[in-house]
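Notes from the 1:1 (GR / supervisor)

We went over the backlog. Supervisor wanted to see one worked example end to end before approving the batch request, so GR pasted a single chain during the call. The sequence is below; no edits were made to it. Supervisor asked that the structure be written out right there so they could see what the output format looks like.
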Amino acid sequence: MKARRIKAGVTALALAASVGLATVGTAATSSAAGGWCSGVKIAAFPGGPQGGVFAVNVYNGQVQAAKDLGATVKYYWSNWDPSVMTTQLKEAVASKPNGIAGIVGLIGDASAGPIIADAFKKGIIVANANSGLPLVMPKYAAAGMGFVGATNYKAGVDLANEAISRGKLAKGSKAFVWGLKGAAGDRAQRTIGIVDALEKAGITVVYQEIDQATNTTPASGVPTFVGVMQKNPEIKSVFLDHGGLTASAEAYLKGASIKPGGVYVAGFDMSPAVGTAIKSGYLSLVIDQQEWLQGYLPILQVCLTKKFAFSGLDINTAGGFIDKSNVDVIIPLAAKLIR
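Structure output shown during the call:
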């Protein structure tokens, strides 16, 4: 049975009426007594680093799900390091939870496949988020393996095309793409989508791979950004394929002595810093992945499968764009680390 693809909006009926929203914390586990998913133990993967942009929203969604549903959840922070995530995923399986939920697809089909096979063999449900596992997921969809996130290649293409249209990026102009083409599995496809769409439009791409130091600590990438922009002063647009880098757009442009609006900057994911940068003009456009849902819904998936034998749901959370025209609606929610 193939996983069912539904829009994130319809999942609202499954969300309990939540009162307080979780903020960043250091607790190893969270749960609430008496929920319909009480007694279910889940290993959760919010990404990382702890408290970092994007990952904190995923974590908050996971914490809220644990409170609403009553599951007992233990968290694993990977610092976006595939080797760390691989080790942690093996550790999680060895701990024999009822389910594993969150960002586990970052390591790709080849690395994740044997671990996930072992998990399901042991009766452990796996619900993935953010980076798809197109080869692994169909094998276990009927057993509850779902996916919550964007179709990465399409998201990259959509962001590039939207930026070309809104920013009036001309054929023959030059764009700087800072991305993760070298990432494992499906994650690389988002960067590839951006590059493909730009090149199809006749825009010349200057590409830079995000190194692990910048991947973990985006502020450390200022010298790299400055170097690329100084070497290519004719660049008219910048594409940041990383939530943390997008949140650092203002710091990058200031470091390169580029004024607001000096280049058209597009990226991924909402955060308080992104809202500020859009308002100030340093950032032009972001595609919103609604990462809080990427935390909440995989926990819900595990609970639905464990309690009621539901098969995996395939949910697209990246359906909208944010710019100056609508950012004011999102900023208060971003301040609460839910958007």
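Supervisor's comment: The radius of gyration is 19 Å.
Batch request approved.
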